[in-house]
Write a structure and sequence with these properties.
globular, alpha+beta, binds glutathione, single chain
Amino acid sequence: MSLKLYFHPLSSFCQKVLVALYENDTPFEPHVVDLFDEASSAAFKKIWPIGKFPVLRDEGRDRIIPESSIIIEYLQQHYPGKTRFVPADAELARQMRFQDRFYDLYVNVPMQKVVTDRLRPAGKNDSYGVEQAKSRLRIAVGMVDRSMAGKTWAMGDDFTMADCAAAPALFFANKVMPFGEAHPNAAAYLTRLMQRPSFALAVKEAEPYLTLVPKETVKRAGTGFSPR
Ligand SMILES: N[C@@H](CCC(=O)N[C@@H](CS)C(=O)NCC(=O)O)C(=O)O
């Protein structure tokens, strides 16, 4: 098989790429990386020394492609299917890329900051950084709520890379900061994303690993971190 994906089922950035692969039934060989396992982590860092997943390897074209958005652009270019991730129109493509950046940088990244802080060794927590991340996430979810009024997908009627980015970012953001009734458009968008078969499959595959999500984060955040 030409495509090999280095990933972990629980990783939000990896789920973003899984959604794209599942959307178009693109065949690939899954290769789960366990960053807590020294051998698995070292083997992965030989491929991509930065050590962040997902990474796609295209053996047929002898290419190694890191970075979720770049991977999806690559899939669009070389393995196109029924779902078009990047609009053909240049102006719409620019708008879509902005949405993709927004979900990655202002929803996914702060959400991860909140979650991963709980995985740090005792005494190494970054409470100031977590408060900043919560504040940014709160602002970003409010913006999502306003921008999704009257829309089905991030770009309107067509499902694109921006929705691949939004699905796991909002899924986990909703776990650390439940949207509730204050953000009905964001909540309804997340419901649509969860009903999309590609993301539903990624979530199902992550289920066996959900116990690894630090429970304390969800509990603490759920009580002290509700959007206003
Ligand atoms: N900009 C990267 C972000 C990837 C990323 O942050 N991946 C996380 C998992 S969701 C990771 O590899 N974390 C491990 C680490 O930072 O050591 C992308 O879009 O692919």
